[in-house]
Design a protein that fits this description.
The protein has seven helices and twelve strands. It has 274 residues and is of the alpha+beta class. The protein has one domain: Clam (outer membrane lipoprotein receptor (LolB), chain A), CATH 2.50.20. It has a twelve-stranded mixed beta sheet. The longest helix is centred in the first third of the chain and has 12 residues.
C-alpha cells in the first residue's frame, strides 16, 4: 500500500462468441442448472484470449469501472481502470484513469491518476517482478490492483460450480446475446482447492452470491459476484463487494505489449523501499 501512495496522486485507488440462437438458450430448462454450469466451466478452459468489462465496487476501494483484455500464452493483461485519486492532504478527489499492463513479469502503469512528478517526463512507470492471473499467493501488483481484479476472469467465472443451491432465474439478453441466467450461493467449505484459491482472492466472508449468464454456445457471457463484508482484520477494507464482469471478443487475436523502453521510468527503488 505504500507503493500505491507513491504511485498515485496522494493516496488510494478508489477505485464471446455468437450464440447458436434462441432455441439453444430456451432449451436450458431441459438441462439441470448444475449440468449447464459445468458445461460453461469446461468451455472456459478453452479460452486463450479475451476482452472483458468490469463494473461495480470492491471493499476499501469503492466504485470502479474497467475495460481489459488478456492472453494466456504468454500470460499478459492490459486494463484501463477509472479511479478517484486524492489530491494532496486536503482530501479532495478528482476522477482519473490508470492504464495497467502486465507483460513479461513486469507491470507498467500510466494514465491521469499517476503522480506527474513520478513519471519524470515519461508516460509509464514500471515495477518488477509483477505477476497477474495466478493463484492467491502468487500475484504481485504492488497494491495497484485490488485483489479481486488479480484473478484470471475465466477461472473466476467457474466459482458457481461449488454452489449447493443453483437455480435458473430465466432468459435474458446480455450485450445482444441471448443467455440463460443462473444464481447460487458459494461457501468456502464447499469448494475444492482450486476454487478455494479463487474465493480467497475475493477477500470476503461467506456467503458469496454469484450470478452467471451462459450463452447459446455454452460459454459464460457475464457473471456477478456479491458479498457484504471483507475479511481484512483492520477494517480498512470493510464494505460490500459487487462486481459484474462481461466477456466479449473470446479467442480473437490481440496483442498486449510492453510500452517502449524509452517511455518508461522504472520504480524499482521505490518499490523495494515500500
Amino acid at each position: 500500500m505504500a507503493f500505491v501512495a507513491v504511485l498515485l496522486a496522494g493516496g488510494s485507488v478508489a477505485c464471446g462468441g455468437g450464440a447458436k440462437g434462441d432455441s439453444a438458450v430456451a432449451g436450458r430448462a431441459e438441462v439441470s442448472p448444475a449440468a449447464a454450469v459445468a458445461r460453461a466451466e469446461k468451455n472456459a478452459k478453452d479460452i486463450t484470449s479475451l476482452r472483458y468489462r468490469i463494473s461495480g465496487s470492491v471493499p476499501g476501494r469503492g466504485r470502479l469501472e474497467a475495460e481489459a483484455s488478456m492472453n494466456t500464452q504468454p500470460l499478459a493483461m492490459s486494463m484501463k481502470m477509472t479511479t478517484a485519486a486524492e489530491q494532496g492532504g486536503n482530501g479532495n478527489r478528482r476522477q482519473g484513469q490508470l492504464e495497467i499492463r502486465f507483460a513479461g513479469k513486469v507491470m507498467y502503469v500510466g494514465g491521469s491518476a499517476v503522480r506527474p512528478e513520478k513519471l519524470k517526463g515519461k508516460s509509464w512507470l514500471s515495477a518488477a517482478p509483477a505477476i497477474w492471473g495466478r493463484g492467491a499467493m502468487d500475484n504481485q501488483s504492488y497494491g495497484v490492483l485490488p485483489s479481486q481484479l488479480q484473478a484470471n476472469p475465466t477461472e473466476q467465472s467457474t466459482l458457481l460450480t461449488g454452489s449447493k443451491d443453483l437455480r435458473l432465474i430465466g432468459t435474458e439478453t446480455v450485450d445482444g446475446a441471448k443467455t440463460a441466467h443462473y444464481r447460487g450461493t458459494v461457501n468456502n467449505k464447499d469448494l475444492n482447492r482450486e476454487r478455494l484459491d479463487q474465493f480467497t482472492m475475493l477477500e470476503v466472508f461467506d456467503p458469496l452470491t454469484m450470478d452467471l449468464w451462459i450463452d447459446g454456445d455454452d460459454r459464460t457471457k457475464q457473471f456477478r459476484l456479491r458479498a457484504e463484508h471483507s475479511v481484512l482484520p483492520d477494517g480498512t477494507g470493510d464494505g460490500p463487494l459487487d462486481l459484474t464482469i462481461t466477456f466479449h471478443g473470446i479467442n480473437q487475436p490481440m496483442a498486449i505489449k510492453a510500452p517502449p523502453t524509452s517511455d518508461v521510468t522504472p520504480l524499482a527503488d521505490d518499490a523495494q523501499g515500500g
